[in-house]
Amino acid sequence: MKHSPYISWAKKHHNVECNLASSGMPRPSLSNLVKDPQKILEPVDHENGWPPLMKKIANRYEVNINQVVPVHSTSFANHLVCALFLDSGDEVLVESPAYEPLVSLPKYFNASVKRFDRNPDQRYQPDPSQIEELVTDQTKLIILSNLHNPSGMLIDEPVLWQLIDIAEKYNCHILIDEVYLEFLYPNGERTAAKYSDNIITTRSLTKAFGLDDLRVGWIIAESITAERIRKLQDLFMTTMASPSEQLGLMALEKADPILDKNISLLDYNFQLVDEFVDQHSSLSWHKPSYGSIGFVNYTSGSVDMLADHLLENYQTLIAPGHFFGDPDCFRIGWSIPTEKLEKGLENLGKVIELI
Fold first, then answer.
1. Exposed, middle or buried by CB within 10 Å (0-12, 13-18, 19+), for 170?
2. Residue 178: closest CA among 155, 159, 198
3. Cα distance between residue 333 and residue 310, in whole Å
4. Helix H or strand E segment including 296
5. In angstroms, how far is the first alpha carbon of the chain from the final one?
6. Who is most buried in 94, 164, 280, 332, counting CB within 10 A?
7. Can you give the C-alpha Rg of the chain in angstroms?
């Protein structure tokens, strides 16, 4: 059966009282974005993407407007890239541990998937030498995330340049899911797509902005690849939803205050999680410098048993590591309101002591 086990699980449990598996920010009030609600219902010229939104995205990441392809969500962006490059039997290299849909997606296109390590002992950095050993003439894509999902770690820039050298040497492409990289905006926006024609990046307003319901995402690629993606998109959907595009532009126009507020919450909540991990001898992690998620190692038993007991008895959710490829860990998020996070951590502590 072709589906995403992780997404099916997450949808089933998204309404729990304390969702420590959540990775996206709380949704900002749309009333703070919209000055004239009637205006967003008026038709606009957006057959190949609404130009004002595309220009805003291009300026934000310092790329040309013809490199920008607006799409409905990062997930669909990743789907389009795989649909463009992959035929049955092609090879794809995917990081491990990984956000499960990044593994299931190339398999959906009947590609042959090879895994490369993002080793916790190396701060979850990809190993370019291991990747180069796996690349063959049949390799079409190398897929990874930055910030890394589930660990939240940033790829070191020298490592990124080594990956670019590999892609250019072997004439393959790198797909980088950068949806969490938006959390780095105080340090200056960057996208790896600026560095090489062999890199394609995907983002959206879901995680850092908390605007999951708008389904506004985008692909950044060199102009010829971007045009090929636009033409391919016509097979799936002729245009974006115009109200979403207009609301997306409004959100990007207010990006700084939205992200300032969200990062302030994350900074405070992160300290609570870091202290919690330090207080429990059965827990350890490589704490991320940015973002809303981290990957915690648990040494006192079964993570699945821990997660099940926590959910059944305390209505609190963590994301078991088997979804990401490491059953000894769980992904934890701290983007929820502080009072919910405190309650969830209290519940998690009770279960750790109990079982």
1. middle
2. 155
3. 15
4. strand 293-298
5. 34
6. 332
7. 20
The number of C-alpha atoms within 13 Å of 334 and in the hemisphere containing its C-beta is 29
Tens digit of each residue's pLDDT (9 = 90 or more) over 237-277: 888 888 899 999 999 999 999 999 999 999 999 999 999 99
Cis peptide before 154 (omega within 30 of 0): no
Is pTM beyond 0.90 here?
yes
3 state DSSP class of 21 = coil
Element (H, E) at 8: helix 5-13
List the domains of the chain with CATH numbers.
5-26+256-354 (3.90.1150.10), 45-254 (3.40.640.10)
How is residue 317 written in tokens? 């959710």
What single letter denotes the amino acid at residue 240? M
Amino acid identity, position 41 = L
CB 22 within 8 Å of CB 13: no
**Beta-sheet pairing, 199-204 with 283-285:** unpaired
In angstroms, rounded to a whole number, what is the distance separating the alpha carbons of residues 218 and 204? 6
What pLDDT score was predicted for residue 3?
85
